[in-house]
Design brief:
By secondary structure, the protein is α+β, with helices and mostly antiparallel strands. 40% of the residues lie in helices and 16% in strands. The protein folds into two domains: 3-205, Phosphorylase Kinase, domain 1 (2-Layer Sandwich), CATH 3.30.200; 210-311, Transferase(Phosphotransferase) domain 1 (Transferase(Phosphotransferase), domain 1), CATH 1.10.510.10. It contains nine helices and nine strands. The strands form three sheets. Strands 1-2-3-5-4 form a five-stranded antiparallel beta sheet, sandwiched between helices. It has a two-stranded antiparallel sheet with strand order 6-7. A hairpin with a 3-residue loop joins strand 1 (81-90) and strand 2. Helix 7 runs antiparallel to helix 8 (276-292) and helix 8 (276-292) packs across helix 9 (300-311). The chain is globular, with a radius of gyration of 21 Å. The chain starts with 7 loop residues before the first helix and ends in a 12-residue tail after the last helix. It binds adenosine-5'-diphosphate (ADP) and magnesium ion (MG).
Length: 323
């Protein structure tokens, strides 16, 4: 039996619930449903944990409840998580929650990035990034291109294929976090991954999560050293043949004088993607533009050229081919 068989629960679950939700929403005046749409949605949204119940302090909205609880269930089963305390932010493709749990033997705050189910019905236009990337399995390994069942499903965008693509997308984020964290980059430490969610180091405290650079005004004396720190990370990534691909003040957190880069699912490689230079250039330009507004002078074009020449020599061996 293929190990992909167990994607079926999520595929069936979400599509069934979605169909029901859509049907519930479609109820209009004139036709009187036996139950109100609200009652129907309430019923549908009732979670049905399979391996033991768990309760959380956070009260999710009805539409959020099913996928939140189902996505985090495996971590509760493994006692990695003990509570979901609050929604940190609903991002473009995922919600991030402040959770409580056990890391090593220590109780601590944990960030859970839960990918939206919408993601695998309507994947972001990720073609530009996907070029030259294999598909990653739930275990983080590359799918063999001669695995026809999977390649066909992905090509035809069946629900199963979309789930594979969805998991691949978040496995890239997890693998990248792991690789970069180990290499000394300023990224959250990743703790665990499952089909639909990633657990990682929470940046912030019990009162609130770290803001993004976009949300704050840096002090004058902080801007220059933090710009250097972002560049150190850009360079470190390129040294490992990685380009963030969506780097901007929206994906850099600030906490107590330090920055943390986040949001890596679209990470791409210089050697295997024809758009890599353009993607890299955009990352660097956005960062330079943000810091230029704070008075930090730089030469983005020069920086891009210099880093590219230094680290993407086709004759140089790749440092790590994992991500
Ligand atoms: N490890 C973390 N600690 C604290 N807050 C985080 C963490 N990761 C993400 N966030 C918050 O959640 C938001 C969404 O996360 P992000 O990874 O950028 O996903 P998206 O693809 O939805 O933008 C971020 O803008 C940030 O405010
Ligand atoms: Mg983001």
């Amino acid at each position: 039996m293929s190990r992909y068989e167990d994607y079926d629960w999520i595929e069936e679950d979400f599509s069934r619930k979605d169909r029901k939700l859509r049907r519930a929403r479609r109820v209009r005046g004139g036709h009187r449903p036996k139950k109100s749409a609200r009652q129907q949605i309430d019923e549908i949204a009732e979670p049905t944990p399979t391996e033991g119940e768990f309760t959380i302090s956070y009260s999710p909205a009805r539409h959020e409840k099913v996928w939140l609880l189902q996505s985090l269930q495996p971590f509760f089963d493994e006692d990695l998580l003990t509570d979901v305390q609050a929604l940190v932010k609903g991002g473009k493709e995922a919600n991030v929650y402040r959770c409580e749990g056990q890391v090593s033997t220590q109780r601590s705050l944990i960030a859970a990035k839960v990918y939206r189910p919408r993601m695998f019905r309507n994947l972001r236009n990720d073609k530009v990034y996907r070029e030259g990337r294999g598909l990653l399995t739930e275990e983080g390994r590359t799918v063999k291109t001669n695995d026809h069942r999977i390649m066909r499903a992905v090509g035809k965008k069946t629900a199963f294929g979309q789930q594979i693509a969805h998991t691949s997308w978040l496995m890239y984020e997890y693998n990248t976090l792991k690789q970069l964290y180990e290499a000394g980059a300023a990224v959250p430490q990743p703790y665990a991954v499952d089909k639909n969610a990633i657990l990682m180091q929470y940046i912030g405290d019990e009162h609130g999560a770290a803001p993004t650079l976009h949300e704050i005004e840096l002090d004058d004396d902080e801007a220059q050293p933090l710009f250097q720190e972002v560049l150190r990370n850009i360079e470190l990534m390129l040294r490992h043949s990685l380009i963030h691909g969506d780097l901007s003040a929206y994906n850099i957190l600030y906490w107590e004088g330090t920055i943390t880069l986040i949001d890596f699912p679209q990470v791409t490689k210089p050697q295997s993607n024809r758009n890599a230079y353009r993607i890299f250039e955009r990352d660097v330009q956005r960062v330079c533009a943000y810091f230029a507004r704070l008075g930090v002078q730089s030469d983005p074009d020069g920086l891009v050229r210099q880093l590219w020449e230094q680290y993407t020599d086709p004759d140089l061996p790749e440092l790590d081919d994992e991500a």
